[in-house]
């Protein structure tokens, strides 16, 4: 085990990491949190403020950020040793305590759906893979009365083992569950959070304490919980971070008010606004695909790209979440966040580095170059009950928690535009819906016609369908494929469209981690790249707020579509207006 306390410039990180046995650390958090392999050596990693994780797994930091805060010493090419900040040295002896750090992770709303379905399983997966720090404690916090044992029983029902790594899984689950505890309390009670603080301290005894709170609760209680957690249960010496789940407001005003309230108790760098689509493998891969392959970046503009499509569909309705959903609708639930975030990553200019702030700066620029969505460029729909094969599927308003006369869209299609030099005039189409015929999420890039194509006559009237299309299938069956034209073998000259296909399940035997695993690990490591900064959020809301208000004020009636169908026909007319065919229907 090599433990070298250093950090380095991101540009040289790959070389340094592949070189060797060198780990990249700083002293900010004083926290060895996990171990990873570089070459053949296992090293312990310590999170770096403002750190970025490199493709090869190395962790790098922005030297500019660190230079301001910590004295640096150049060790060798591109590698800098970082001394602990003076004030920390006074209160904490890093050298003798570096192995004594701990992270307490409190899942606020532990009795809820998301906690059971995603957060606890992701924490277990991280533990199983050896990514959690050596010393950690997990606390569930909610109003429900539960003992530690009851929490463990509840959590154990949702844990699964990696298909490719089943050895010792039962044992690992036991070990993990022993580190899980529960405290029952109100979300607006400082006293109850102070009791939690006391319990956390018992577990942290003698160690350098860092705390992560995951707010897995309905948005109307975010602020109370943040107030109480920050006033009564912040870490006295280490960092305190709060993961905030969406929705971050429901328009510009409520989002800004939420941010203002959060900032009464937390600094921006303590707030981790989660958009779990940013943690999906293929979304992470978008930048790699674009910026590490010479063949794509030169084509990435209005000159070669005809349109880009972001498509999300689910083959189930709002079952069980109708109460929440009716207040938000599909535009706020999926488009304003998940699809727009992917669009920003897709369309941004090359960032200066992979540093979180550099990436987020570029995303904000794209968002601010976009035209606010116009009512004419939106189609909304709502699913109705449908009977198929003897089964009746309920309509949206059949849900008891949804008002019978609800106009909330469960489907929307939209055409957006980026008014900058790269993308002028290119339609960016979005389509998102619940209770459709299939579950999928994909990005489709349709390229222009080949000018003066020698083979045009072979395509006849199907010229549009003969253009290249790049598809990034985010889920399910993660894949990247490129539609090309080729000759059908034989003596004639018949052309065919085929796919050059990178299907992840065929190429990699490893199971793809869940988005929540990556994001939880990043939050523990202080890596902000995949979390939403407040100015990104403002820009995102500015694009959708006017149209959302107009839809509500004008009481626009959504077009009905049957449960399990391909959605309202209006989506085709919208696309056709911009001479586009939805790629998923071709
Ligand atoms: N579920 C999902 O798939 C997704 C959820 N999210 C977001 O994550 C957060 C949590 O979601 P989810 O787990 O589904 O939420 P739940 O409705 O399951 O709520 C979580 C917990 O909060 C407490 N709670 C619920 N309603 C209230 C209330 N009105 N007042 C006080 N406490 C309440 C309950 O715990 P107790 O009664 O024990 O205190 C409940 O177990 C939300 O912000 C949601 O929008 C985001 C993406 C997906
Ligand atoms: O944020 C949300 O996402 C889920 C879809 O997530 P996925 O990872 O399963 O694709 C969606 O069902 C939910 O309505 C929305 O709030």
From TrEMBL:
<dbReference type="GO" id="GO:0004345">
    <property type="term" value="F:glucose-6-phosphate dehydrogenase activity"/>
</dbReference>
<dbReference type="GO" id="GO:0006006">
    <property type="term" value="P:glucose metabolic process"/>
</dbReference>
<feature type="domain" description="Glucose-6-phosphate dehydrogenase NAD-binding">
    <location>
        <begin position="107"/>
        <end position="285"/>
    </location>
</feature>
<dbReference type="InterPro" id="IPR019796">
    <property type="entry name" value="G6P_DH_AS"/>
</dbReference>
<dbReference type="InterPro" id="IPR001282">
    <property type="entry name" value="G6P_DH"/>
</dbReference>
<dbReference type="InterPro" id="IPR022674">
    <property type="entry name" value="G6P_DH_NAD-bd"/>
</dbReference>
<dbReference type="InterPro" id="IPR036291">
    <property type="entry name" value="NAD(P)-bd_dom_sf"/>
</dbReference>
<keyword id="KW-0119">Carbohydrate metabolism</keyword>
<dbReference type="Pfam" id="PF02781">
    <property type="entry name" value="G6PD_C"/>
</dbReference>
<protein>
    <recommendedName>
        <fullName>Glucose-6-phosphate 1-dehydrogenase</fullName>
        <ecNumber>1.1.1.49</ecNumber>
    </recommendedName>
</protein>
<dbReference type="InterPro" id="IPR022675">
    <property type="entry name" value="G6P_DH_C"/>
</dbReference>
<keyword id="KW-0521">NADP</keyword>
<comment type="function">
    <text>Catalyzes the rate-limiting step of the oxidative pentose-phosphate pathway, which represents a route for the dissimilation of carbohydrates besides glycolysis. The main function of this enzyme is to provide reducing power (NADPH) and pentose phosphates for fatty acid and nucleic acid synthesis which are involved in membrane synthesis and cell division.</text>
</comment>
<keyword id="KW-0313">Glucose metabolism</keyword>
<comment type="pathway">
    <text>Carbohydrate degradation; pentose phosphate pathway; D-ribulose 5-phosphate from D-glucose 6-phosphate (oxidative stage): step 1/3.</text>
</comment>
<dbReference type="GO" id="GO:0009570">
    <property type="term" value="C:chloroplast stroma"/>
</dbReference>
<dbReference type="GO" id="GO:0009051">
    <property type="term" value="P:pentose-phosphate shunt, oxidative branch"/>
</dbReference>
<comment type="similarity">
    <text>Belongs to the glucose-6-phosphate dehydrogenase family.</text>
</comment>
<keyword id="KW-0560">Oxidoreductase</keyword>
<feature type="domain" description="Glucose-6-phosphate dehydrogenase C-terminal">
    <location>
        <begin position="288"/>
        <end position="582"/>
    </location>
</feature>
<dbReference type="GO" id="GO:0050661">
    <property type="term" value="F:NADP binding"/>
</dbReference>
<keyword id="KW-1015">Disulfide bond</keyword>
<dbReference type="Pfam" id="PF00479">
    <property type="entry name" value="G6PD_N"/>
</dbReference>
């Amino acid at each position: 085990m090599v433990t070298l306390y250093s950090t380095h410039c991101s540009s040289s990180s790959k070389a340094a990491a592949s070189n060797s046995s060198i780990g990249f650390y700083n002293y900010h958090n004083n926290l060895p949190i996990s171990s990873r392999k570089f070459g053949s050596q296992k090293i312990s990693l310590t999170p770096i403020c403002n750190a970025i994780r490199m493709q090869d797994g190395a962790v790098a930091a922005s030297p500019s950020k660190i230079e301001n805060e910590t004295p640096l010493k150049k060790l060798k090419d591109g590698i800098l040793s970082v001394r602990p900040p003076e004030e920390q040295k006074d209160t904490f002896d890093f050298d003798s305590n570096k192995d004594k750090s701990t992270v307490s992770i409190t899942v606020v709303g532990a009795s809820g759906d998301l906690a059971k379905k995603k957060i606890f399983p992701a924490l277990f997966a991280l533990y199983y893979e050896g990514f959690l720090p050596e010393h950690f404690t997990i606390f569930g916090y909610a109003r429900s009365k539960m003992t530690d044992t009851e929490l463990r029983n509840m959590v154990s029902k949702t844990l699964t083992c990696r298909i490719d790594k089943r050895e010792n899984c039962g044992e690992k689950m036991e070990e993990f569950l022993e580190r899980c505890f529960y405290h029952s309390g109100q979300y607006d009670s400082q006293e109850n959070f102070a009791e939690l603080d006391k319990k956390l301290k018992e577990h942290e005894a003698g160690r350098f304490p860092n705390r992560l709170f995951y707010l897995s609760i309905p948005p109307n209680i975010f602020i109370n919980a943040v107030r109480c957690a920050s006033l009564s249960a912040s870490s006295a010496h280490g960092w305190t971070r709060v993961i905030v789940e969406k929705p971050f407001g429901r328009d510009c005003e409520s989002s800004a008010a939420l941010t203002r309230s959060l900032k009464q108790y937390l600094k921006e760098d303590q707030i981790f606004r989660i958009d779990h689509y940013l943690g999906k493998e293929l979304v992470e891969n978008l930048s790699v695909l674009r910026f590490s392959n010479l063949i794509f970046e030169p084509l990435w503009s209005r000159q070669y790209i005809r349109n880009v499509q972001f498509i999300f569909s689910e083959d189930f309705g709002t079952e069980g979440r109708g109460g929440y959903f009716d207040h938000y609708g599909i535009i706020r639930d999926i488009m304003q966040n998940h699809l727009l975030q992917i669009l920003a990553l897709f369309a941004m200019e090359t960032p200066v580095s992979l540093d979180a702030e550099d990436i987020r700066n570029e995303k904000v620029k794209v968002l601010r170059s976009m035209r606010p969505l116009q009512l004419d460029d939106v189609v909304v729909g709502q699913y109705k009950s449908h009977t198929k094969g003897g089964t009746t599927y309920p309509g949206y308003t059949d849900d008891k928690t949804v008002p019978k006369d609800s106009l909330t869209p469960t489907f929307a299609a939209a055409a957006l535009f980026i008014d900058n030099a790269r993308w002028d005039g290119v339609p960016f189409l979005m389509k998102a819906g619940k209770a459709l015929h299939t579950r999928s999420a994909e990005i489709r890039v349709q390229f222009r016609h080949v000018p003066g194509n020698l083979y045009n006559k072979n395509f006849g009237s199907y010229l549009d369908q003969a253009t290249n299309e790049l598809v990034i299938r985010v889920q399910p069956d993660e894949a990247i494929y490129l539609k090309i034209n080729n000759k059908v073998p034989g003596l004639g000259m018949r052309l065919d469209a085929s796919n050059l296909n990178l299907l992840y399940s065929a190429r990699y035997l490893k199971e793809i981690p869940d988005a929540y695993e990556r994001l939880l690990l990043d939050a523990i490591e202080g890596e902000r790249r995949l979390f939403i900064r407040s100015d990104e959020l403002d820009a995102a809301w500015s694009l959708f707020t006017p149209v959302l208000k107009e839809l509500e004020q004008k009481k626009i009636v959504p077009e009905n579509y049957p449960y399990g169908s391909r959605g309202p026909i209006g989506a085709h007319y919208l696309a056709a207006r911009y001479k586009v065919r939805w790629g998923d229907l071709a």
